[in-house]
Amino acid sequence: LCCSEITTIEGIIWRAKFSLIEVIADASKEIKEKLITFVDKLSRLINCETEFSMIVDDPSGNSFIENPNPEKIDTQLTTIHYHRSLQQEKLLGLVADDVEESNDEDAPPVWESREAIRNEVLHFSVDCPNCLKQAETNMKFINIPYFKEVIIMATCCEQCGHRTNEVKSASGIAERGVKLTLHVVDPCDLTRDVLKSENCFLYIPELELEVGMGIVGSKFTTVEGLLKSLKETFENQSYFSLGDSALPDQQQRMRTFLEKLDQASQGKFSYHLIFDDPSGNSYIESLTAPNPDSKLKVEFYERSWEQNEELGLNDMNTENYSSEAEKPPETCS
């Protein structure tokens, strides 16, 4: 009846009604009576004189029906995700017209809700960053208690054996940055879960350690696992401090540092682990949540202009976009 548009349920029915009214005059007597009867039914639906169900079946997956209370479950709306048939793939131009139906008997799963997707490990193919051949990535939604939902992705290439894993926030960049300070004083602190985003800076003042966002990527692990990963990263990347070209005092300094980092991962002395994340997407587990943790300090702060620039937020214009676009260019006098 119409092309893609943003409208209401009432608007859809009105459009269908007017489209039918336009053809009634040219219809035969028998068809005209049926059309008039059907138009009357549409009028009753518009006036909410009877209950009805409206079904939107969109093979492209690009249709949406509003939830009037998005913070609550919409009991009147049912959403079902399905895998397209071959005919639908052809209609959308996703496959060639000469592709034939597969004989596979194993039907793909049908996700009846967003919760069903969250409870399942999703799989998709990517190009391996090491050998550029096809590799499979596993993706899973994880809800971290007292924090937020994150997406964990792991890729393993069967061709070259290359493995990668990363963690992404499912909610984007937070309104404010966060600074987390954990005082590690006993072995139980090493078992705390931590989420370090790709934008997070890491500090351990007792070791004079400062790690920028580009040294270690996003990780969801424990305090112990994070420190061991840091040690491994420094060992693999400190070519000029541990290699044959390094001076003896440089080698000794790096070995001493790595030894202290190893001791820290074993909890042999107390220290402070600091996360400074402008994106607000890093997390250190509290052992007393939801009550305050005496060994964990959480500080939220407003980002500086430079931090917003680093996150690419300064160039984003989400308010009055059309009015900004319509402004005429300034002329030089």
UniProtKB/TrEMBL annotation:
Residues 324-333 have a biased composition (Basic and acidic residues). Residues 309-333 are annotated as: Disordered. Gene3D superfamilies: ZPR1, A/B domain, ZPR1, zinc finger domain. Keywords: Metal-binding, Zinc, Zinc-finger. Signal peptide: none annotated. Residues 126-286 form the Zinc finger ZPR1-type domain. The lineage of its organism: Eukaryota, Metazoa, Ecdysozoa, Nematoda, Enoplea. It comes from the Eukaryota. It comes from Trichinella papuae. This is Zinc finger protein ZPR1. One of its GO terms (cellular component) is nucleus. Belongs to the ZPR1 family. GO terms for molecular function: zinc ion binding. InterPro entries: Znf_ZPR1 (IPR004457), ZPR1 (IPR040141), ZPR1_A/B_dom (IPR042451), ZPR1_jr_dom (IPR056180), ZPR1_Znf1/2 (IPR042452).
